[in-house]
Every structure is written in C-alpha cells, then in structure tokens.
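quick one, two chains, predict together pls
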Amino acid sequence: MPVSRLLILCWAALVTLSVCTVLLAHAGASLSIAILLVAVGKAWLIADGFMELRRAPRLWRRLMLSWALVLAMLVGVALVLSR
Amino acid sequence: MSTSAESAAAAPGHLPGDLAMWFFMLAELSVFALLILAFAVTQAIKPQMFSDSRLLLDTSTGLAMTLGLLTAGLFAALALEQVRHSRPRRGAALLLGALLAASVYVVLKLSEYRHLLASGLGLEHNTFFTLYWILTGFHFLHVLLGMVILGWLAERCRRGGFDADKRSGLESGVLYWHMVDLVWVVLFPLVYVLD
C-alpha cells in the first residue's frame, strides 16, 4: 500500500477514535478505562503511523509507545482510587 | 533517486530525523507526563471539584481542536512523503495546509480562553482551572512553536532547501509537530472528558 494512503487511513482511524472518546463520555462515567484505552490507541497510531516508528530501532519505538501506556495506566489508577 | 529515498525511509532500523530531536522530545514528553500526572492525582483528591468544573468546558470544542491538530499532523506527514519523492513544491503546499489546519486549533483555543476569562474562570478560580491553564497553556505554546517550525519548513521547502537525499531537518520539524499531537491525544480526554 502506498505510504500516502497508509497515512490517510491512520488519520481516519484517529478521527474515528476521537469521536469515540466523546461518545463514550456521553455514554457514562463508568467508561473511563475505555476512554483511556482509546487515548493509548490514538497515541500508538501517531507513534507508529505519523512518526514512522513501526520500523524504527526497537528502543525508541518502545520508549514512545510506553509513554502513553504507562501514563494512561497511572491516570487510570488515580481515577480508580478517587472512587 | 526516489527509489533509493523510498528504501532509505522504509529501511528497518531507520530512525527518522535527527537523534538530538528524539532526546529533545523525550525531555518534553517527560515534562508533560509530570504535568498530566499532577492533574490526575489532584483529580483523585478533589473529584467533585474536577467533575463540576469540567462541566464548564465544551467537549465539542475540544473535539474540533483535536481534529485540527490531527489534520495538521496528516498534512505534515504527507508533505514529508512528497519531499521523499522529490516533489518539494507539493511538500511546501501541504505544509501550508498543515499550518491552516493548526490555525483552526489556535482560533478555537483562543476563543475558549476568552470565554473562560470573561466568565471569571481564570488561573486562580480553583485548583482545576489552575491546572487547566498551566497544562493547556504550556501545550498551546508548543503548538505555536510547532506552527513557526511548519511555516519555516514550508518556506525552505518552497525554495528547494529539502530534497529526497537532504531531508533530516524536515523530518525533525515534522516529528516535533507529531509530538505536540501525541501530547494532545492524552491531554484532551484527561482535561475535557474523564470523570
């Protein structure tokens, strides 16, 4: 698949997930973990798609992917503790 | 020429841009991570205040700003791809498109800031808004710097300053913009949505 088409698909997925975030928020506060997972998905799409880390050295890719994952996990723990 | 450029871009183990930019982004992401965690921990301590204050923000505006930033990211990535195929003029036009999409975010953000200030919801209103202004203000400054970089890249591209073999500066600048997007996709749900 041409790179340009891949980038447009990546953008379309990001837009869809952004709309999902708002829909999940309207559906109920109990879906916070799902909203965080969507955020991680979007961050990974940006890292692997736009930043081209899918074929980059493993260390950098892992660092960037884990930034969003670890952050979302810590935010999730904070949210659960507040209930 | 474009064939060698394509294989260079797609080669496994190739890190786009300058290594210094990756270390810079790592430092920036660490600072943002601390601010985001500060926001989340304070929300855990004062959940009711955060829940009530969040109702004063417009989620639809937040979504529109997200779409502006992501669209700018797409245009910037497409511009890089055009330069890799030795089409710098198309690259320059796409970078201007990225700048235009980014300005949608700026206009919306400034209108949100103006509305909040007019309603008396400034930095000192409560803890939620103190963190809201620090976190989104810091990100806003990064967007502005990103736009200056995009504008400079567009001009250099138009003048033929980048080509398929000489594009590391362009890659680094475009990466900076993607980092701004990366921070926003975590920041947006945390500030506007998560209760």
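Chain A has one domain: 3-81.
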